[in-house]
Amino acid sequence: MTEITSKYADFEGLRKQAVALRREGLSRRQIRDRLFVDNNDILNRLLEGEPAPEWTKRPNAKDDLREKARELRLQGMTYDRIQVELGCSKSSISLWVRDLPKPAPRTKAEASAIAKRGWEVTLQRREVARQEVKQAAQREIGTLSEHELFLLGVGLYWAEGTKDKPHARRERVAFVNSDPDMIQVFLAWLALLDVAPERLRFHLMIHASADVAAAERYWADLTGTDVSSFGRTTLKKHNPKTVRKNVGIDYRGCLVIHVQQSADLYRRIEGWWCGIVGGSVFGQAPRSALT
What we know:
Elements: H1 2-7, H2 11-23, H3 28-35, H4 40-46, H5 63-74, H6 79-86, H7 90-97, H8 108-141, H9 146-160, E1 173-177, H10 180-192, E2 200-207, H11 212-223, E3 234-236, E4 254-259, H12 263-280
Parallel strand pairs: 2-3
Antiparallel strand pairs: 1-4, 2-4
Helix pairs in contact: 5-7, 6-8, 9-10, 9-12
C-alpha cells in the first residue's frame, strides 16, 4: 500500500495528464500505458467524470431494446409485461432497469391479463416458426417430374384408394378423400396416365347435418364438373351423442372418384406398388405381393 501511495503522490498532477490525454481521444489502455498506471482503481479516479471517446464505444445490438425497456419501466410496467412487449429475457431487463423505481403491485386481474397476453405472444411466435419450416420444406420440392408424379400417385392410391382383397374382389379404381389437395393430385395423376375425364364419376359422402348443397357445389367447382353430373350423395346419419370436430363451413364431406372400366388399371397400380416395395427394400430380394 505504501508503494502504491508513493508512486501516485502527485495525484492531481497525474490526473491533469490523464484528463488531457482522455480529451485527446486516447483509450483507457493507451492512458494506462502512457502514464504507467497499472492500478485500475487509481485509473478510475484519474478519469472520473471524463466520458470515453466515441471510437472506444462498442456498438451494442441491444441498445434499442435497452432504451425501450427503460421507457416501459418508467411507464410502470413489470418485468413480465416488458418481456411480453420486447421478447427479451428477464435477466437482461433486470440489468437494464434496476436503477429505476419499481411499479406498484399489480392486481390479480392484471396478472391474469399479462399471463394471457404472454401466452398469445408465445403462440404467435410458434406459429411463425411453424410456417417458416413448412415454407422452407415446400421450396425444397420444386416442380415434380412426370416420373416423380407417377410414383407419388401410385403411393397415394395405395394409401387412400379402394384395394382388392381375396375375400372381396374389388378390381376397380376408386379414391375417397376429404382433402382437396389430395383430390387435385390424384386427378393430375390420372391425367398423366391418360385416363379420359369421361371415365370419371363423382359422388359425395357427407353427414346429413351438413350443408350438402354447398359441399356439392364446392367439389364440382374443384373438379371442373357440374353438380348435375354427380351421382347420388351418401348421407351419414347424425348421432347426437357423438361430439364431432368436422363441423362448420369448412366441412365438405368426402369426395368419391370412380374410374369406369378400370380393372386393368387397378391391376397395373397393384403391380406398380409391388415394384416400388421391391425397389425400396435394400439388401433383400424383391418379393411379389401379387396374388
